[in-house]
Amino acid sequence: MSATEPSKPTPPVPAPPAKPLPRKMPSPAAAASAAPAAPAPSTSSADAADWGRVADDGTVEVREGETWRVVGQYPDGTPDEALAYFVRKYDDIAFKVNTLEQRHQAGGASAGDLVKQANHLREEATDAAAVGDLAGLRDRLDALTSSLSEATAQEAQQAKELVDQAIAERTALVERAEAIAARDLSKVQWKQVTAELGELFDSWQAHQQNGPRLSKSVSQQLWKRFRDARSTVDKARRSFYSELDDSHKVARDAKTRLVERAEALAPRGVDGIPAYRSLLDDWKSAGRAGRKADDALWARFKAAGDALYSARAEQAAAEEAESGPKIEARQALLEEAKAVADESNIKRARALLTGIQRQWDEIGRIFPRDKERALDDRLRVIEQALKAREDVDWKKNNPETKARANDMSSQLLEAIEKLESELAAAEKSGDKKAAKDAADALEARRTWLNALGG
Fold this sequence. Notes:
Blueprint lengths: L12 E2 L13 H7 L10 H7 E3 L4 E6 L2 E7 L5 H28 L4 H15 L8 H14 L1 H33 L8 H21 L5 H48 L9 H12 L6 H32 L1 H19 L3 H18 L5 H29 L1 H31 L2 H20 L3
Antiparallel strand pairs: 1-4, 2-3, 3-4
């Protein structure tokens, strides 16, 4: 360093903290007077002189009660500069105390947090390397702590109640998870169960993030129960889907083979339809192969069937076109068959119908089948009408029937002759009742005789 260059001042050296001096606690009146927080004023030079002094060697001391305590050294400055440096240290602490008092007066701050900060500042103000009324700052902090004691107790009680409530809510989540795990997991709807358990886990995480902190022992115990229930469900779900994957693979392989067999029927055309229907029955009993695989395989299987049925539709269209003249021929025969009903001679009517039936069969099959059935039904009506006429004629001309009718007629004639004699005798004798009975019986016998054709 050159002789002309000014020397830099040596930084002040704070003294090691001394043992705190015992002090009297502030009276309630003093605490009350200290409670209102005013803006922290800077310590004046006169105040600095009251609370601090500087020795010739730059050693700075602060007065605490009747005792002076060394706070540090400021060897390269004036006494005023030395005091000013350590007064600023005091002003920094006083500003923090004043801010804390203002937060308390404004309200809304947590009493527990304010007490923690007050205790921290009190430690900072004890044996601080600063010049000022440090004891007064500590008294103000003690008064603040005392005024917050009741609020702190209330907050502690509220915190305990919140913790108890959080424990009850988390316990309810655990019990719901355990209830799910206790179900017969072989018969549940896994989509629904997974959603339920997912909601419970989301609620659990929300409690952890937003709820009060629980003790480690309680938190771990509840989490272990919840985790075990969740693990039980997850294990059963993995087992279910593993078995489902295996069954899907079996069904997928079986349906793949059915698709290949169905596609191999294409060259057979219409003749392959019966075999395709059999394959369709096998398809229905093959089980599920998973939605995507089922959809893809079914699209191929259906396409193979559509090709067969398309060939049948083409064949049916060709057959229907070919059947047009046949339909017209049978309709013409139906017109001829109307004469069967008009023919009074049953033998000639039967001969006419037999000829029509022969021509009907010679025409051959008609497509589509529903049109053929409709024409057959119309001819069948004519056949049944002739058959009914033949049955009636047979009953009338049957020799046995005639013999029985003649015998019955003879019996009725004898009865009628006898009843006529009885009626005449009753009328002659004036017996009205006997006459009436004979007349009723006579009328009945004559009716029977008329029915027999007598």
